[in-house]
Amino acid sequence: MNNVVLIGRLTRDPELRFIPSTGMAVARFTLAVDKGLYGERKQQAISQGKPTADFIPITVFGKTAENCANYLSKGSQCAVQGRISTGSYTTQTGEKRYTTEVIADRVEFIGSRDQSQQQGKPIQPDSSYFDDFPDDDNDIFQPVDDEDIPF
């Protein structure tokens, strides 16, 4: 089974291209996925200059690719479901290079960079929100005898 699910943030804006022969949209972007290091292990990795995230290349096709290009940008958070694809190519100098990427079948937009910058700020409800609630909580709750409970 070749199935991958990742959640992370885009390291740059998606790059959208179209396949000339078919006109199909292809979007590529890199997803920074946190390695899940916490506390001392994370601090140790940072102090040693080691990355605390993996950078995964993602390729998306069709309408999903167009949506990614239109609605995702650097810093956006998304979830990607797809499969790992490996390949190789030869450079102009004759050197063989190997590639690994995720071909996304599904991309869900979790939040944008602007939303993530506002995290931690409490949402203030409109003052009229509380107008429908009674002032005295005693009117809402009635005491119940144990004998009145059916179990």
Report what the structure shows.
This protein has 151 residues and is of the alpha+beta class. The chain has a single domain (4-112), classed as OB fold (Dihydrolipoamide Acetyltransferase, E2P). The protein has helices at residues 39-47, 62-71, 113-117; strands at residues 4-10, 15-18, 25-34, 53-61, 77-90, 96-111. Strands 1-3-4-6-5 form a five-stranded mixed β-barrel. A hairpin with a 5-residue loop joins β5 and β6. The protein is extended, with a radius of gyration of 25 Å. The model is unreliable at 116-130 (pLDDT under 50).
Question: Can you tag this structure with a few keywords?
Answer:
five-stranded mixed β-barrel, alpha+beta, OB fold (Dihydrolipoamide Acetyltransferase, E2P), single chain, 151 residues
In short:
The chain is an alpha+beta fold.
**What's the architecture, going by CATH?**
Beta Barrel
Topology-level CATH name:
OB fold (Dihydrolipoamide Acetyltransferase, E2P)
* Backbone structural class: alpha+beta
Major sheet: 5 strands, mixed, barrel
Strand order of the largest sheet: 1-3-4-6-5
Give the tally of structural domains. Answer: 1
Number of strands: 6
Q: What's the helix-strand series? A: EEEHEHEEH
Q: Kindly state the percentage of residues in helix.
A: 10-25%
Please give the oligomerization state of what you see: single chain
Class, according to the CATH hierarchy? Mainly Beta
